[in-house]
TrEMBL record:
SUPFAM superfamilies in the cross-refs: Ribokinase-like, YjeF N-terminal domain-like
The protein's name: Bifunctional NAD(P)H-hydrate repair enzyme
EC number(s) stated in the UniProt entry for this protein: 4.2.1.136, 5.1.99.6
One protein family per Pfam: Carb_kinase
Record function comment: Bifunctional enzyme that catalyzes the epimerization of the S- and R-forms of NAD(P)HX and the dehydration of the S-form of NAD(P)HX at the expense of ADP, which is converted to AMP. This allows the repair of both epimers of NAD(P)HX, a damaged form of NAD(P)H that is a result of enzymatic or heat-dependent hydration. Catalyzes the dehydration of the S-form of NAD(P)HX at the expense of ADP, which is converted to AMP. Together with NAD(P)HX epimerase, which catalyzes the epimerization of the S- and R-forms, the enzyme allows the repair of both epimers of NAD(P)HX, a damaged form of NAD(P)H that is a result of enzymatic or heat-dependent hydration.
Domain YjeF N-terminal: 10-208
Family: Belongs to the NnrE/AIBP family.
Amino acid sequence: MRTAYCVETVRAAEAELMARLPGGALMHRAAAGLAAACAGLLGRVYGARVVVLAGSGDNGGDALYAGARLARRGAGVAAVLLAPDRAHPGGLADLLASGGRVADDPFEALAAADLVLDGITGIGGKGGLRADAVPLARAARGSNAVVVAVDLPSGTEADTGEVRGEALRADATVTFGAYKPGLLVDPAHDHAGPVRLVPIGLEEHLPSVPDLEALQHGDVARLLPHPAAESDKYRRGVVGVVAGSARYPGAAVLAVAGALRGGAGAVRYVGPGADAVIARFPESLVQGGPPSKAGRVQAWAVGPGLGEDAEGAVRDVLASDVPVLVDADGLRLLDPQTVRTRAAPTLLTPHAGEAAALLGVSREEVESARLASVRELAARFGATVLLKGSTTLVAAPGDAAPVRANPMGTPWLATAGSGDVLSGLTGSLLAAGLDARDAGSVGAYLHGLAARLAAARGGTPITAQEVADALPSACRDVRNIRDVVPGVS
Ligand SMILES: NC(=O)C1=CN([C@@H]2O[C@H](COP(=O)(O)OP(=O)(O)OC[C@H]3O[C@@H](n4cnc5c(N)ncnc54)[C@H](O)[C@@H]3O)[C@@H](O)[C@H]2O)[C@@H](O)CC1
Ligand SMILES: [K+]
């Protein structure tokens, strides 16, 4: 599990640790890790041209000390001081003593740089880049240099991933002690590039429950349902899918395609798309009439492609005593009180537009404040919420469990019908017994991984059908199983 901690928590842990160490020790650890990462990116340090953008705080200090280390290895290092009279005194002195210099012309230095260190602001930064920093960040981006963000890209919000105004775009980020939530959440995540974590001894001073977390392959493998020898289809769970309409028959097929690959023992489809579903998936059970008359299921997935007829079906499944996933058309007219009073878990899976409608705000507000939006929806509905998008987030109601950010997303998933596959898949995981936060985050992970595998296999663009077809490969990938059947050769 990759874990991330808010600024307040990181600062408290740092204070505890610093009290036991000689002054400056943490900054030297950070700078040593940063310089080593830069050396790796440069390949050859001797003769490389490095520019350090140094703000007035300790983030600038890290960058200046790392610059000094690179200068001692033969790099030509020039510092651009955003606030010359408030630059980190120890860092600047070390840089100058190591053969570095202050740049005469910042833009000339940036244009010729092989590597730029962004030490403008770190966890102490507030708001986007200030006016004097914007042209420097743009010049760094416009050069051929590798741009490395120190701790986080300057101008991004460490706790939320928000970018208010302009932020630096990095090719890579080297962060210290712990991931910050913003590094895992768009739009900040998108500014960071690949993130490397440099341990500075903070780990044992951090609380066991992080503020945000992201699954990795091993976590998904552990959470995935495994059929036991004595399992039959009912013990493995039956997922009910209520999707599709005369207008959107494809949604039924795609949701069932996802559901068949989610680990439930059987898929019961209820709705007007039964003929299309049976033609494509004869292994599914199909039923007409209302969901409540369709026979026992262990979870429902309701909403994709229901069109105008969603209301009755949603009311019907919400009245059941099993977990319910509500998506797409099912989210329109959803009453918070009805969801709050359910005894069984509810999982809502809006995209930003649907989330905006539920919250009564604009889509842009949701996109720019994804973490706050998903938390607010979970609180308002007393439900687990999976907010789809550039970084899919899953929040459970209450503060006990950290929000999960999906690290497996890909822009290629922004294709018609891919959400229907995710609904079926995630509903199936609910029916197989995963709790709503696990089902949502495992569903999003496998869905993203399947899309990546489909793209690698068949090229882009990919279709929703291909995403569904690649789900078994995604499950094998997380379990590290190659395409051979054990015992059969
Ligand atoms: N506390 C510690 O022991 C450690 C801190 N470290 C570094 O210290 C950083 C935090 O340092 P600070 O608390 O000094 O804070 P920062 O260096 O992140 O920024 C604070 C300074 O930037 C200015 N500022 C705020 N918002 C700005 C904006 N939008 N544009 C321009 N300037 C802005 C403030 O006036 C202040 O002078 C971390 O991100 C990390 O890089 C590391 O060295 C590890 C150890
Ligand atoms: K920075």
